[in-house]
Design brief:
single chain; 487 residues; alpha/beta; Rossmann fold; 2 domains; 11-stranded mixed β-sheet; binds GDP-alpha-D-glucose
């Protein structure tokens, strides 16, 4: 797909999507590439389908005098949507992204308080960036336009916008998990953050547990009044007994919605049907002389548990030596937050763990784990989905996890070993659920997936595939926007 961005005059927009970054990055050699990330990957097809303006931040180039940049996105030379960038200096961007959102918000939202860091002054940058987004959107939005804010980088934005433009319809979707109040309450800015999100008419989460945790925090820290009802959900590590569909705050009702995001079915199916993806898969399988290929694909991030997964593979070979020489894990670790020391350490720890297992168990003709630390073109990733017998999705915690859904959507048969702490475990029936904190537990899950009788495996996979196809990205977008219209 050819992508181009051309400078254009700004025009009032009826639909605005705001996320901290845009979907495309300029390549040093010229041209544009897609950023690899669940949120941008999901919102770009949404914008292609709906049009409108995507507001994000961009880097202010040397000598650039305008505070914002407005462009039209051409895909295959056709105008699809607009991108409006709020320009930040390198220092502001670093404080906002690598600083506050990465070191303070990310670990709390995923329940890793021991990784939390506070650097003085960064909260002010976070607020300043949210304010700049609010002023930009207040100028761009047509009367009574809809604004759909994405994710935790912009939690203050809805509250700020409601003050500037009370006529707007405001929705927010959180792509991460949301922790219980005892963990969220660690943040010294908890009240302002929650109050900011409650500026919306509708707040969406992947699964009911996150909505419940959010409502409990709003009740505890803001005195908001959630309407609780019994959930009647089946017992599950991610199923709350009480759920909340709306709450009262500051004299207004705010609707809460649980709506698990789905995979970009049309784009994936086009690739699955392409001769290239099929040829890639069959070449790979004939070159890799193993009975079973396992696959994991993710951004390199401690929440995804890359080192824990390597330990689980080692436990598999120790507990079930019959798999030695017959099973290989291909682990794709897309670079993420490059330059942040904690993430660079994680990359080194992952390489070291893979090296130890490979040097202990590998042979001149077989490696237990192949680790690729780079981004593959999407058609190759789809080729890998087609080639892999089992997809390993074992994050320590994850908002949803699209890889599990993409794998299920691309194939007719296979197996998914899935962390019980990924939102996908709530959505996807048929996966082999495991506790990712326990290498032995994951190892047994992999063994189970590899030895499922064919009829049982097919039955499980059919259930998974049905959900992934029916509740795809288009379904998610339509369901969210319908709820927002009615809010
Ligand atoms: C957040 C939440 C939530 C992966 N490797 C390659 C590649 N990918 C693509 C996959 C998938 C996406 O990246 C990753 O999806 P995740 O769901 O793991 O997303 P996160 O980036 O963690 O983002 C997450 C998501 O938002 C959506 O709400 O599910 O819980 O953390 O689409 O296909 N794509 C390419 N090459 C790769 O090597 N091209």
């Amino acid at each position: 797909m050819t992508i181009d961005l051309i400078a254009s005059e700004r025009e009032p927009s009826q639909l605005i999507v705001a996320s901290h970054r845009g979907p495309f990055a300029q390549q040093p050699e010229g041209g544009w590439r897609r950023r690899v990330n669940g949120v941008f990957g999901a919102m770009e097809p949404v914008m292609r389908a709906t049009g409108g303006t995507w507001v994000c931040w961009g880097l202010r180039e040397e000598g650039e005098v305008m505070p914002e940049r407005h462009r039209t996105v051409l895909i295959e030379e056709e105008e699809r949507f607009r991108i409006h960038e709020v320009l930040l200096t390198g220092e502001e961007a670093k404080e906002f992204y690598e600083g506050f959102t990465t070191e303070s918000l990310w670990p709390i939202l995923f329940c890793f308080p021991s990784r939390l860091q506070f650097t003085p002054g960064l909260w002010d940058t976070y607020r300043m960036v949210n304010e700049r987004f609010a002023h930009a959107i207040a100028r761009l939005a047509a009367p009574r336009a809809t604004v759909w804010v994405q994710d935790f980088h912009l939690m203050l934005l809805p509250g700020l916008l409601r003050k500037l433009r009370p006529d707007l319809k405001l929705g927010f979707f959180l792509h991460t998990a949301f922790p219980p109040p005892d963990v969220f309450g660690i943040l010294p800015w908890r009240e302002e953050l929650l109050d900011g999100v409650l500026g919306c008419d509708l707040v969406g989460f992947h699964i009911p547990l996150y909505a419940t945790n959010f409502a409990r925090s709003c009740g505890r820290f803001l005195g908001a009044k959630p309407h609780w009802r019994r959930s009647n959900l089946e017992s599950h590590a991610l199923a709350p007994t009480l759920v909340c569909d709306s709450l009262m705050h500051g004299g207004r009702a705010v609707k809460l919605l649980s709506l698990g995001i789905g995979a970009a079915r049309e784009d994936l199916e086009r690739l699955v049907d392409s001769p290239e993806a099929k040829a890639y898969a069959s070449d790979l399988r004939s070159q890799m002389a193993v009975d079973h290929l396992l696959l994991s694909a993710e951004r390199l991030d401690y929440v995804k548990g890359p080192v824990e997964r390597v330990k689980a593979m080692e436990a598999l070979f120790d507990r079930h030596p019959e798999w030695i020489g017959r099973v290989t894990l291909l682990q794709i670790a897309v670079p993420s937050r490059e330059g942040v020391p904690e993430f660079e350490r994680l990359r080194d720890q992952t390489h070291q763990a893979v090296g130890e297992v490979n040097s202990r168990l590998g042979t001149p003709t077989w490696l237990p784990i192949i680790n690729l630390g780079r981004t593959l073109p999407l058609k190759e990733l789809v080729g890998l989905y087609l080639a892999a017998d089992v997809c390993l999705v074992t994050p320590l915690r994850d908002g949803m996890n699209l890889v599990a859904k993409e794998y299920a959507l691309c194939r007719e048969d296979g197996a998914v070993v899935l962390s019980e702490f990924a939102g996908a475990a709530f959505d996807l029936p048929g996966a082999v659920l495991v506790n990712p904190f326990s290498p032995e537990h994951v190892a047994e899950g992999i063994h189970t997936a590899l030895t499922l009788p064919a009829s049982e495996r097919k039955k499980r996979f059919r259930a998974m595939r049905r959900v992934s196809r029916n509740r795809d990205l288009g379904w998610w977008r339509k369901a969210f926007t319908k709820e927002l219209e009615e809010a």
